[in-house]
């Protein structure tokens, strides 16, 4: 995962920043955004 490499993820349009910390809520948010992005990619590829 990106956070395990001491990196930060910044989403400019949503004004979200995920830094390398142990915040369980931030980890949940990042994982959910990834799951929705994967779902969207698969739905688009089925068209």
UniProtKB/TrEMBL annotation:
Its protein name is Resolvase/invertase-type recombinase catalytic domain-containing protein
GO terms, molecular function: DNA binding; DNA strand exchange activity
The beginning of the lineage is: Bacteria, Pseudomonadati, Pseudomonadota, Alphaproteobacteria, Rhodobacterales
Q: Where is the Resolvase/invertase-type recombinase catalytic domain?
A: 1-47
Q: Which SUPFAM superfamilies match?
A: Resolvase-like
Give the organism the record lists.
Meridianimarinicoccus aquatilis
Q: Which Pfam families match?
A: Resolvase (PF00239)
Taxonomically, which superkingdom?
Answer: Bacteria
């Amino acid at each position: 995962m990106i956070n395990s490499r001491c990196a930060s993820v910044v989403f400019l349009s949503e004004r979200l920043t995920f830094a390398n910390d142990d915040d369980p809520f931030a980890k949940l948010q990042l994982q959910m955004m990834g799951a929705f992005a994967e779902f969207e990619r698969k739905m688009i590829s089925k068209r």
